[in-house]
Structures are given as structure tokens and as C-alpha cells.
Amino acid sequence: LRANANTFCKVCQMAKARVFNLVKRFSGYPTEDDFQLVEEKLKPLQDGEVLGKTLYLSVDPYMRIYVKNMPLGSPMIGGAVARIVESRNASFQKGDLVYSFSIGWRTAFVSDGKDLTKVTHLPPDVPESLALGTLGMPGHTAYFGLLDVCKPLKAGETVLVNGSAGAVGNVVGQIAKIKGCTAIGCAGSDSKVEYLKSIGFDHAFNYKTVDLHQTLTQVAPNGIDAFFDNVGGEFADTVLFYHMKNFGRVAICGSSSQYNLKPASEAEVGKGMFDTQTQGPRLQGVILAKQLRVEGFMFHRFTDQDDEANTALAQWVQEGKLKWKEHVTEGFENMPKAFIGMLKGENIGKAVVKNTDV
Fold first, then answer.
1. Distance (Å, rounded) from C-alpha 50 to C-alpha 111?
2. Angle at which helices 169-178 and 137-144 pack, to 10 degrees?
3. What is the pTM of this model?
4. Mean pLDDT over each residue of the chain, to the nearest integer
């Protein structure tokens, strides 16, 4: 009787969730005051629904841009891995591990299951959080961005990826090596550069302490075949103008150098894709002259090929060919701090938050 009572009490406790709401528009880098932590009472479970407890939550650069379309006062967006603790949905059982982009910043949730995906592809002895990183959205982004957008990738080619110590960039470089290419990466600290070298990058440098043009001339004297761009800005301008080979391929995955620029005025906050529009070189001429293929992409375009990526990435992890690293922040209450730190480059590998709520 006591055991049943304890179980009942635990489910009762899950009927409430802690949630972070967005309460202010970002101006430059987000601040902790842009978010508000509230307690939310979850609705009673109905037929066809599940009750889930969040295990790990993801913080990613794309959130900085997507929040522009969010109404203030709504829960902050973000992906999470969760465990089903109660189910009245025939597609899910108690104990199932699931992933969803629509859980957002919350410790628990009720869902009809339509936005949940079962996580069944993790190899033994890896944490559930890997479904948010190397074996999740960032891994898929790296996989399809390099092997599909930058196709045909051939052994012996030279691949450059910036933001290389982040969740996507480190996977891009390692896949390039698996495919027999020369991998060039960069990061914003010497410790990150050492990490890149430890996972197999042929060349890695601290972009803050070198002349980019001179460095790329030295490490890739014959030019770049495939450029995976996570940063944009002056870095991308330099690569496209001076270092791409004829018929090179460029995958535009992000433009993190632009995400946190201060707006010129309060009137600009929240308008357009970026708060401040910077003017760079005109690239059309060099794209034409070198016959480059430059393509922007988002990972969900390849959703129908998820099984292919899951199989390949998991196999490489098991074989030791694809190494992974996480930057784990403990405690749901630290979501804003983890998000801001990720945007400032404090992480090596995938940045996640572990929900320590009982």
C-alpha cells in the first residue's frame, strides 16, 4: 500500500512543471532578465496522451533567431529528451525515451504524442543526451550538410568548417576524415584548437590570433573544395573571395557572427532576420567566376532520411571513428545561463542542460 502511495505521489508531483517564458526581446546577447521562471499546472491526462519528464534540454544557436517570431510570455523554444512516466497512448509505453522540438524549456509536459519521436538508435553505454547532439539534430545537420549539400564529396578533397568545436562543426570535420578528406577547422581558443587536433582534424587554428587569409594560404595552398559555413560574416567573405577552388561547394548552415549584434536603435529590435544588417563585399562576381555552388539548408529538409543518418552516425560512434563531447550544465534553473554561455562560445561540443528535478 505504501509503495502504491509513493508512486501516486510521484505522479502527482509531475502534474506541475517548471517553465521558462520569454518576457523580453533580445538586444545583442540575451540576458537572464529576458526569461522568467514560472510553475505551470499540467492538465489531467486524457485518452491518447502521455505524461513526460524532461531529462536533458538542448541550447542551440538557432534559438537566438527563431525567438523573433515568438509572442512574449510564451515558453522558450527548444528540443529535449524525455522519459514517458505515464501513458494513455497506445503508441507509447511508460519508460519510453522520446525526443521533441516542441517540448521547450520545461521540466514536464503532457502531449498527444504527435510531436514526439521515440529514441531507439542510441548505442549501448552512451548517455540519453547524445540524442540531442552527435546522434541528434546537430549530427544530422553535419551529415546531410557535408554529404548531400556539398556533394559529391571525394576522398582527397579539402574541407573547411568554421565553428568547428561546436555541436555541428566537430562532427563535420570527423565525417570529412572518415570519407578520406583533409579536414581544416578553427575555434576561438587554444584549448578548443587542441580538442580539434585530438579528434583528428589535420589543421586547426585559433581564428582570433591569426591572419585568416595567410593561414588558409599555408594550410590549403591549392584551395578549398567544400566549405561548411556556420559563422558567415568576414570569415565567409575571406574564404569565398580568396580560397575556394573552381566548382567548389559551400553549405550555409548558420551565420553566428551576426546573431548577437547590437541593433542600431530600439526600433530595429525584433525586425527582420537579424537586428542589425551589416554590409559586406558583393560575392556574386566570385561565385560566377569560380562557378561555385552556394546553398543554404536546414536539417529538417532531410527528415525522410533520418534512418540513414541514425544508422551511419551510431555505427561510427560504436567503431570509435566518431568521437563526442558534451558541455553539461546541471539544473533546470540554469537554462538561461547555459543558453547565453553557448552563444558566447563557452562550450566544447554539444551544450545541454540536465534536469535535476526529482
1. 5
2. 50
3. 0.90
4. 92
